[in-house]
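We were asked to recover a plausible sequence for a given structure. The inputs and outputs are reproduced exactly as logged, with field labels preserved.

PROBLEM: sequence recovery
POSITIONS: 371
GIVEN STRUCTURE:
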């Protein structure tokens, strides 16, 4: 009772702005911890009305109430996927989860590039490990809430591939989909798994592990944006030979081109948020051109408005995710994005949001479109 009054109070626009501004004054990792706690306590108001029917999306056999998900890295330990669904996300990707718990890099390791609405992180897969997340999901997973589990490798693992296999085996019975994340820049050597030979072995073994599970769970591969044409060609060659369900494009970038000279720009780690948008959307479109229209792609990287969400779909995404822009815009950004997309769908008299997908792939792939 008291909590629901508190939640209503927090949902007032003035209070939301105040709390967002207060969070922005805190060290970013502290602000993140407070946000997770607020969600756990039910102190973020749930969405009041159900999504319009035209937001319903099917991707890789999953039926989503809307195609806007929370990206990996926000809920690393699977603490709040149900709450993320309650506040309006169509799906939540938890993790990255590694077999054993690990502390990640020393703090500070999360930085705002405030002038550009960017974020740099070098968290290094801080997480409580498989068992903690597995137990939490077993206990709390609600029907109708779509949860992806993003799996990774421990930094000191002797065999990265074995860690992914363990993740797939552990979470296949529980997850709605799995993500094999080989694109985080903060675990030395991890991104090398994107090279052809290593990727062949990784996907061969993880997809074999998936095939052993009682239920067939879709597996996505999450890529970095820092890939050249040859690297993209090689990845596509490999994925054509295996039974992969989709791609997630992209993770953070090592490039600092968009933030040169800004405060915190020289911090080591991956850059995300608005300054990543054009680059990651170009890579998404370039991969869409290569794989054709059939392979599902979740587009992520720099979405910060309804316009940018629409552009990500137009560049070839079937569903989208975001994280960093919420640091600056607060959770109410999700509502703004959904409202903007709904206006567009009604204005253009579309039957379903899927009609916004892949309408402008070539321009994005050729670097001729930008926001
Ligand atoms: C603090 C932070 C932690 C992240 N941790 C992960 C992670 O554990 N696994 C992963 O696949 N991506 C992780 N990401 C990357 C995001 O999922 C996303 O791909 C990237 O930030 C681009 O989207 P955005 O610009 O909307 O944030 C992290 C991003 C941030 C900002």
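RECOVERED SEQUENCE:
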């Amino acid at each position: 009772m008291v909590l629901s009054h508190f939640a209503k109070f927090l949902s007032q626009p003035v209070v939301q702005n105040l709390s967002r501004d207060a969070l922005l004054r805190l060290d970013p990792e502290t602000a993140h911890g407070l946000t997770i706690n607020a969600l756990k306590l039910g102190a973020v108001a749930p969405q009041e009305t159900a999504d319009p029917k035209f937001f319903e999306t099917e991707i890789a056999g999953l039926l989503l109430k809307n195609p806007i998900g929370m990206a990996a890295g926000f809920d690393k330990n699977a603490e709040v996927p149900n709450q993320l669904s309650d506040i309006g996300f169509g799906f939540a990707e938890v993790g990255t989860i590694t077999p054993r718990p690990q502390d990640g890099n020393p703090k500070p390791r999360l930085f705002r590039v405030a002038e550009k609405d960017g974020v740099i992180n070098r968290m290094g897969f801080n997480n409580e490990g498989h068992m903690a997340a597995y137990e939490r999901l077993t206990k709390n997973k609600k029907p109708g809430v779509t949860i992806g589990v993003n799996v990774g490798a421990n930094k000191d693992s002797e065999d990265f591939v074995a860690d992914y296999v363990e993740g797939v085996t552990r979470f296949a019975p529980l997850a709605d989909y799995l993500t094999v994340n080989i694109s985080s820049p903060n675990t030395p050597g991890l991104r090398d798994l994107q090279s052809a030979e290593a990727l062949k072995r990784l996907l061969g073994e993880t997809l074999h592990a998936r095939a052993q599970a009682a239920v067939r769970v879709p597996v996505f591969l999450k890529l970095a944006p820092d890939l050249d044409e040859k690297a993209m060609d090689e990845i596509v060659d490999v994925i054509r030979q295996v039974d992969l369900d989709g791609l997630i494009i992209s993770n953070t970038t090592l490039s600092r081109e968009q933030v040169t000279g800004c405060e915190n720009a020289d911090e080591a780690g991956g850059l995300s948020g608005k300054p990543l948008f054009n680059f990651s959307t170009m890579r998404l479109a370039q991969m869409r051109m290569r794989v054709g229209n059939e392979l599902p792609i979740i587009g992520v990287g720099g979405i910060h408005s309804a316009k940018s969400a629409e552009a990500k779909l137009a560049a070839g995404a079937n569903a989208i995710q975001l994280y960093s822009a919420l640091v600056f815009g607060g959770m109410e950004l999700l509502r703004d994005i959904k409202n903007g997309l709904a206006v567009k769908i009604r204005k253009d008299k579309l039957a379903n949001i899927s009609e916004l997908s892949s309408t402008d792939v070539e321009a994005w792939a050729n670097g001729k479109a930008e926001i």
